[in-house]
């Protein structure tokens, strides 16, 4: 009998950040990942750990079919103990050869662990949605972005970005705000697919993130005041409740690449179908 897939979800949120996120949307970043992964792969068992706090998987990495790095407020360019622990964990993932996927800070951690660099956003803040993401020539042929149109939007909220990809990396997509929106990183025996946006986030969690970061967004000029942030977040919440509302989608400038969960989660679905399951079969797991 084939055993279930085993997924390891690495959260880099610190306890107070997890508490704030749960108070806002009811879930930590890792809990959101687990819900989405179980929906995509009902045969999966999901474990969560907190490497930034020094946690390690009890049975090591070799027993997992994939590792997922969730987003967080972590600033990878700050030399702090949590950052050093996350980077060390990511290096161990590469050494293990276990396929890995990361969104937002997850991509930044993978880049930093393999010789790339991360910085604060050089352009304007991407909050709510990353607009007009365009695959590179390599991205058009890469299975991570299979099924994406030539230009698409995606849920996103981030203050940092990958400045320089490491050796062995392939740029797969970018836009006018953030040059590195998707990439593949190969290092040692490991393969990592990552995106700067958030295919795992439902729209109500994007609304919650906007509210949590309202003061920063006003300070950065993204919105005139907190009331403006709230009005936008309320529209995103309403679209979450009524994803078929063409009126709400039109007001927000969104299409089914964002409103349809199966399309929004395309990169996660492609990662599991094209990298995780074939690698597992090749290793003879089960």
Automatic annotation (TrEMBL):
Residues 61-201 form the Glutamine amidotransferase domain. Keywords: Glutamine amidotransferase, Hydrolase. The keyword Protein biosynthesis does not apply. It comes from the Bacteria. Pfam families: GATase. Its EC number is 3.4.-.-. GO terms for molecular function: hydrolase activity. This is Type 1 glutamine amidotransferase. It comes from Roseomonas gilardii.
């Amino acid at each position: 009998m084939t055993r279930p897939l085993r997924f390891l979800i690495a959260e880099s949120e610190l306890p107070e950040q997890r508490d704030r996120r749960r108070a806002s949307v009811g879930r930590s970043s890792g809990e959101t990942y687990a819900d989405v992964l179980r929906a995509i792969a009902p045969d999966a068992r999901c474990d969560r750990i907190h490497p930034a706090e020094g946690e390690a998987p009890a049975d090591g990495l070799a027993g997992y079919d994939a590792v997922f790095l969730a987003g967080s407020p972590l600033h990878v360019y700050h030399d702090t103990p949590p950052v050093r622990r996350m980077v060390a964990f990511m290096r161990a993932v590469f050494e293990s050869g276990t396929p890995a996927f990361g969104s937002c800070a997850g991509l930044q951690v993978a880049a930093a662990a393999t010789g790339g660099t991360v910085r604060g956003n050089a352009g304007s803040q991407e909050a709510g949605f990353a607009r007009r993401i365009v695959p590179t020539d390599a991205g058009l042929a890469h299975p991570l972005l299979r099924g994406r149109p030539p230009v698409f939007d995606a849920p996103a909220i981030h203050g940092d970005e990958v400045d320089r990809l490491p050796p062995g990396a392939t740029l797969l997509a970018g836009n006018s705000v953030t040059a590195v929106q998707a990439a593949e990183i190969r290092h040692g025996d490991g393969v990592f697919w990552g995106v700067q946006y958030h295919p795992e986030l439902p729209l109500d969690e994007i609304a919650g993130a906007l509210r949590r970061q309202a003061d920063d967004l006003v300070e950065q000029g993204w919105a005139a005041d907190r009331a403006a942030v709230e009005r936008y977040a309320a529209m995103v919440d309403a679209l979450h409740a009524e994803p078929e509302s063409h009126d709400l989608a039109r007001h927000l400038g969104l299409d089914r690449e964002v409103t349809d969960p199966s399309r929004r989660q395309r990169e996660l679905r492609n990662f599991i179908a094209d990298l995780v399951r074939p690698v597992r079969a090749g290793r003879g797991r089960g």
